[in-house]
């Protein structure tokens, strides 16, 4: 069965074709990063308009790359939420219109479920059950995953997400958007031990996070250094390295705590921050000590993409969680706010 998937929840237009037996056949992506850079963040209206411009050419591109015609597509998946409402509507309306014209089912996918299952696109594939550390620009959660559609929230951020902490501190340091990769690059030149920053909630008994205080701590340190007239390029890099180390230390500590608490020995990391080299290395080392294994999505599939959406749909189909009848009514039911743990385990969420 061939599934065409659409992702348009934020600033990436992603398209992909996944075959339920053969896996990923083709995927294509257009990132709007360059367009939003001059505004220092995503401008929702511009994002929606750009999705409209890109979505049809990208659809043609993935079909060509997969060697398929539109008629060969058996179901259409799209990100129904969470995300920017206008941006989500582009993917949802194009997907629904295409499904309607082909008289095929449409499958609404939760964006975070896409991230969560994306490490299963890589080899070796983690077996269930596992702990998932979901670290994106909007979410930081630790979940227990027992099967496709069976997710238990163990902990989450009480305020800013880890990606947001990267982005906001990067902005303070005068780095561009998106901040995560830029801050991480600058951190390579710095010494993380030169400046001390707090590790919020590192020793709390739960699996929750709090990152909003970190940007205040960074700002305070920056002001102090500026006042002393010693805030040079090296100090900027040291501050970047210290910020990265603080975020990574807390993420790693809580992921390890979740493994210990549940007795599980498989950790899956997903979402944009999962591309962070420092996080990957620190977790790899910790897993060796714990005799556990950490799994990551392929690097280019850490940030938003269509492959994870088509793939999550394929896994839901294989798990028998999707109604494959073409619906009588194709609605545009998007959910800009949508908790992953409220995802119903059976049936098509729309
Ligand atoms: O999953 P994602 O592409 O979008 C959301 O669903 O939010 O994640 C984007 C986030 C941004 O905050 C970005 O700064 C962060 O992931 N990010 C990184 C890296 N690459 C992307 N953070 C740290 N290090 C990276 N290498
Ligand atoms: Zn995402």
TrEMBL record:
Q: How is the cofactor bound?
A: Binds 1 Fe(2+) ion per subunit.
> What are the EC numbers?
2.3.1.234
Against InterPro entries, the record matches this protein to: ATPase_NBD, Gcp-like_dom, KAE1/TsaD, TsaD
| EC class (word) | transferase
State the name under which the record lists this protein: tRNA N6-adenosine threonylcarbamoyltransferase
Family membership: Belongs to the KAE1 / TsaD family.
Which of this chain's residues are annotated to bind Fe cation? 111, 115, 304
Assigned keywords, A-Z? Acyltransferase, Cytoplasm, Iron, Metal-binding, Transferase, tRNA processing
Q: Which GO terms describe its molecular function?
A: tRNA N(6)-L-threonylcarbamoyladenine synthase activity
Q: Where on this chain does substrate bind?
A: 134-138, 167, 180, 276
- Please list the residue ranges annotated as the Gcp-like domain: 24-311
Keyword Acyltransferase on entry:
yes
Q: Which reaction is recorded as catalysed by this protein?
A: L-threonylcarbamoyladenylate + adenosine(37) in tRNA = N(6)-L-threonylcarbamoyladenosine(37) in tRNA + AMP + H(+)
Q: Which cofactor does it need?
A: Fe(2+)
Principal location: cytoplasm
Q: Where in the cell is it found?
A: Cytoplasm
Protein function: Required for the formation of a threonylcarbamoyl group on adenosine at position 37 (t(6)A37) in tRNAs that read codons beginning with adenine. Is involved in the transfer of the threonylcarbamoyl moiety of threonylcarbamoyl-AMP (TC-AMP) to the N6 group of A37, together with TsaE and TsaB. TsaD likely plays a direct catalytic role in this reaction.
Whether Transferase counts among this entry's keywords is yes
């Amino acid at each position: 069965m061939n599934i065409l998937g659409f992702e348009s929840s934020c600033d990436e237009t992603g398209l992909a074709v996944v075959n339920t037996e053969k896996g990923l056949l083709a995927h294509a992506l257009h990132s709007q990063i360059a367009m939003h850079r001059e505004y220092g963040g995503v401008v929702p209206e511009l994002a929606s308009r750009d999705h409209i411009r890109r979505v049809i050419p990208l659809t043609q591109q993935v079909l060509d790359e997969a060697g398929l015609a539109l008629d060969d597509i058996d179901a259409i998946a799209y990100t129904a939420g969470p995300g920017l409402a206008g941006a989500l509507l582009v993917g949802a309306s194009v997907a629904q219109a295409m499904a309607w014209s082909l008289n095929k089912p449409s499958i609404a996918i939760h964006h975070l479920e896409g991230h969560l299952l994306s490490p299963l696109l890589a080899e070796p594939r983690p077996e269930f059950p596992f702990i998932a550390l979901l670290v994106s620009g909007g979410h930081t959660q630790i979940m227990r995953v027992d099967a496709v559609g069976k997710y238990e929230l163990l902990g989450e951020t009480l305020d800013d997400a880890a990606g947001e902490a990267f982005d906001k501190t990067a902005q303070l340091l005068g780095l561009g958007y998106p901040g995560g990769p830029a801050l991480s690059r600058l951190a390579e030149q710095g010494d993380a031990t030169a400046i001390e920053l707090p590790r919020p909630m590192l020793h709390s008994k739960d699996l929750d996070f709090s990152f909003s205080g970190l940007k205040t701590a960074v700002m305070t340190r920056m002001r102090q250094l500026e006042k002393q007239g010693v805030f040079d390029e090296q100090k900027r890099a040291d501050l970047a390295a210290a910020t990265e180390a603080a975020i990574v230390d807390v993420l790693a500590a809580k992921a390890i705590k979740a493994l210990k608490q549940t007795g599980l020995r498989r950790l899956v990391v997903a979402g944009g921050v999962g591309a962070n080299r420092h996080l990957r290395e620190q977790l790899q080392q910790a897993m060796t000590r714990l005799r556990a294994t950490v799994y990551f999505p392929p690097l280019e599939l850490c940030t938003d993409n269509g492959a994870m959406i088509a793939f999550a749909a394929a896994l839901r189909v294989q798990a028998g969680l999707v109604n494959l009848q073409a619906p009588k009514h194709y609605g545009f039911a998007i959910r800009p706010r949508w908790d992953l743990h409220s995802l119903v385990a059976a049936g098509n969420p729309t």
